[in-house]
Amino acid sequence: MGAGTEPDGSSRSDEEWETFLRESVAGTADAPKEPSARARIVARRLRSEPAAGPEGWRSYTPARPKRRTGRYVAGLLLSVVLLVVALAPGRVVDLFDGEASGSAPLAGETARPTGVPPASAAERPTRDEPFRGSPAEGWASGEAGITVPGAAAVGRMTAAEVERALTRSRDFLVASNLDPGVLRGERPERAIALINPHQKDVQDVLATAFRSPSEKSDPLLLFSRFRPSHAQLVGDVVKTRGRLAYQEGEHGGLQVTADVTFVYPVTRAGEGGDGDIVRTIVRRELVLSWDNPDKVITAPGTFSVISYKYNMTNGGCGAPTGYLTPPFGTDGRATGPGPEVDPYDRSGPVATGGSSVDECGRATRS
Q1: Is residue 65, in this structure, part of any structural domain at all?
Q2: How many domains, in total, are found in the chain?
Q3: What confidence tens digit (pLDDT) does each residue in 219-240 have?
Q4: How far are the Cα atoms of 77, 82, 92, 328, 366 from residue 88, in angstroms, in the given order?
Q5: Which domain holds residue 279?
Q6: Which residues contact 216 (CB under 8 A, 6 or more apart)?
Q7: Does residue 123 share a domain with residue 33?
Q8: What distances in angstroms separate CA 242 from CA 66, 86, 108, 271, one per listed residue?
């Protein structure tokens, strides 16, 4: 008897055999008691298949598409970044610049930098953002930008005395370059009170500087001030960057060196809105001596001025007037026939500079 052949010789289709065998496995009443070998093989196969049965040959289940959400999101973000770069490239640069707007101020300067601050996007200052587009945007404000080193005993002076001398040296810089009244043109009385009254050469300069300014007796040699009828500060913030250093001086005294840059955003007197805003930039280097009273005639709590140098850009050219005179009506850069000057370059020493026509340079940026 061949496989799949009935005793009468007729044959059953595979579908009929599978129906018969399913009923056998399920225990149908009229199922044979002893299935054939073929039945047993098919029965084992059926037990191993899912109950739904084999998939029909015309059946088709399309593959589910792979999710591409990650690609779509990445593409969207890239499009946004490219749009921002196109519309505001300066702001994108600021994200990676330590002097960015709104970022924390730079760490205090503790030594002379080896290079110049990187160029910023050419953005005009506004009343709300007077330092916009300038390296000073990331500088500290006021006296916070003047780094005072830790004090240690020097010569005859204890650490506490050195600390007091450093603090008063910084106080002089604040009183002579940051005091609101002095910036409005008032006489810098608090600053002058810190200068040794017995230092004749400096006292002679102070005696005539405010009354009849000249190149040798000019208040700007030591003080920053604007004529109130000509210019006024934009806001109440002056950006600063610099440091103090000290060493033992002559006769057991303490020599303090200050190197500080001050950035003043100003506009025409009485002008409101976002009119012509210019940044006047002054860098000063002072060497002060806190003298040994046993060797030098001095008043307690005062210092002698050993030297003073300053660079000024956007502060006016011509005969000294005793005031900084910003060049309104220009781009805030072309101020004189002299050589080009980067007012934010602190990598070299301060060269003597004043307000005479010959000395006035052209600021490369404001």
Answers
A1: no
A2: 2
A3: 999 999 999 999 999 999 999 9
A4: 16, 10, 7, 27, 20
A5: 91-363
A6: 205
A7: no
A8: 59, 36, 8, 31
Spatial distance between the Cα atoms of 240 and 255, rounded to a whole number of angstroms: 22
In-domain check, residue 97: yes
The per-residue pLDDT string of the chain (366 residues; one tens digit each, 9 = 90 and over) reads 444 444 454 555 666 656 655 665 555 555 455 556 655 665 566 566 555 544 443 344 445 555 555 565 556 666 655 554 455 444 443 343 344 444 566 899 999 999 999 887 778 899 999 999 999 999 999 999 999 999 999 999 999 999 999 999 999 999 999 999 999 999 999 999 999 999 999 999 999 999 999 999 999 999 999 999 999 999 999 999 999 999 999 989 999 999 999 999 999 998 766 678 999 999 999 999 999 999 999 999 999 999 999 999 999 888 899 999 998 876 555 456 667 889 999 999 997 655 444 467 778 888
Q: Residues in the chain, how many?
A: 366
Bridge-partner residues for 243, per DSSP?
A: 147, 259
Tell me, yes or no, whether 74 lies in a domain: no
Q: Quick one: which of 266, 167, 269, 166 has its CA closest to 224?
A: 266
- Is 135 part of a structural domain of the chain? yes
Backbone phi and psi for residue 84, each to the nearest 5 degrees, phi listed first: -65, -40
| This prediction's pTM | 0.71
Residues 18 and 130 in one domain: no
Are residue 227 and residue 302 in the same domain, yes or no? yes
HSE, side-chain direction, 13 A CA sphere, residue 79: 6
Instruction: Report CA-CA distances (Å) from 43 to 4, 23, 51, 56, 300.
Output: 15, 10, 13, 20, 114
